[in-house]
Amino acid sequence: MPQVKRAVVIGGGIGGLTAASALHRRGVRVTVLERAASLAPVGAAISLAPNALRALDVVGLGDTVRALSAFQGDGGVRAPDGRWLARTSAAAASERFGGPLVLLARATLVGHLAATLPPDAVRTAAAARILDPGDPADPARPARVGTPDGELTADLVVAADGVRSGVRSTLFPAHPGPVYAGFTTWRVLIPVPGAEFSSHETWGRGRIWGTHPLRDGRVYAYAAARTPAGGRASDDEKAELLRRYGDWHDPVPAVLAAARPEDVLRHDVHHLAEPLPALHRGRVALVGDAAHAMPPNLGQGGNQAIEDAVVLAHHAGDPAAYTAARLPRTTAVARQAVRAARLNLMTNRAGIAVRDHALAVLTKAAPGLALRTFDGIADWRPPQQPYASPQTTAGNG
């Protein structure tokens, strides 16, 4: 396998920084090129399932993140009037998948990932493009990356430049790229005085809402609704949320009352409906949303990016092996996320009644039914040892 001594990572988000950290731990000299002026992440919080936490164990951050995170306790799915349609148990999930589901601010995770790198490894305000993807079979043909400060060469380029990846378009110009998933999302991460509640997601007609407490006392809330692409509120997005969710059960009104208009982030959801033919070309490999952007309804977008990163570092000298390891899995997870979005955001009243009744009945008859959705996802383990945490090593024969 060709040795990788130098790598360039395009994109300083969670997937790119995890890849940089994993490669750095393997002795690779890494440069991260981030287009934005800082590493401040887009988005509010991230939910990390046991699969991503085990991947973070590979870079020595699994236990740190577990200690910092708000563990999502017992919760479940509710109707807009507050009825519980399904209850979930944190203890049962931890037992089934070998670890907890945790929640923390994206900025916190980005900060800890960046801290694992040498101080000069990250360059901000550094747009990048692929000049030549290189050839891993030809030592005389490295990958070439163009930047405002000149050209860089690398044994491996990691493209972590998001759903609208310019690198992906360069490598696979015939691919149709991302398409609108049919719904938009809103997110807030704010303190909510006096808020006491269980984590929950609420399913309405073409709308969902989720509320989750963080360990630092703040509340992470998100909403999604089927709406034409490109829409914006005529006044402000807090007002839009009040119109859509203001009469839903507690604590939704309390969260909305605590939010300021400037606290609300709104983004249309785009995904790669057609999988890529490969996750690499030459010496360039795609990770995260650049490789397999998916709807957020399984909460696996960032988790799969973290998985990608440690698997790519494991196969650093063989991008084709990385594609073989990751493409089937990420394609399957992305398709499951699409199915989850269709179920969550149904608009047919009769279908919703059947869905809600079936969910309530089946969950009561088989309390662990909801957890089965994550079989084969949350129980994933990284391909290499040793790990920094016994939670990953345990059961990894």
Structural overview:
There is one protein chain. This protein is an alpha/beta fold. The protein has a domain at 6-74 and 97-177 and 273-347 and 384-393: FAD/NAD(P)-binding domain, CATH 3.50.50.60. It contains 13 helices and 19 strands. The chain has helices at residues 14-25, 50-58, 62-68, 90-97, 106-115, 166-171, 237-245, 252-258, 289-292, 301-314, 319-344, 349-365, 390-393, and strands at 6-10, 29-33, 45-48, 70-71, 75-78, 84-88, 102-105, 122-123, 129-132, 143-147, 150-154, 156-159, 179-191, 199-203, 207-213, 218-226, 265-271, 280-281, 284-286. The chain has a seven-stranded mixed sheet. Strands 8-2-1-12-19-18 form a six-stranded mixed sheet. The protein has a three-stranded antiparallel sheet with strand order 3-7-4. β1 (6-10), α1 and β2 form a beta-alpha-beta unit. α1 packs parallel to α5.
Task: Determine the oligomeric state from the structure.
Answer: single chain
CATH homologous superfamily caption of one domain: FAD/NAD(P)-binding domain
Number of helices: 13
Q: Estimate the helix proportion, in percent.
A: 25-40%
Strand order of the largest sheet: 6-5-14-15-16-13-17
- Ranges where pLDDT stays below 50 over 5 or more residues in a row are 391-397
- Give me the count of strands: 19
According to CATH, the fold-level topology of one domain is FAD/NAD(P)-binding domain
Give the class from helix and strand content and strand pairing: alpha/beta
Q: What's the main sheet like?
A: 7 strands, mixed
User: In whole angstroms, how far apart are the ends?
Assistant: 24 Å
> What percent of residues are in strands?
15-25%
* Overall pLDDT score: 92
The 3D shape can be described as globular
Query: How many whole angstroms does the radius of gyration measure?
Result: 21 Å
Just give the CATH class of one domain: Alpha Beta
The assigned CATH architecture of one domain is 3-Layer(bba) Sandwich
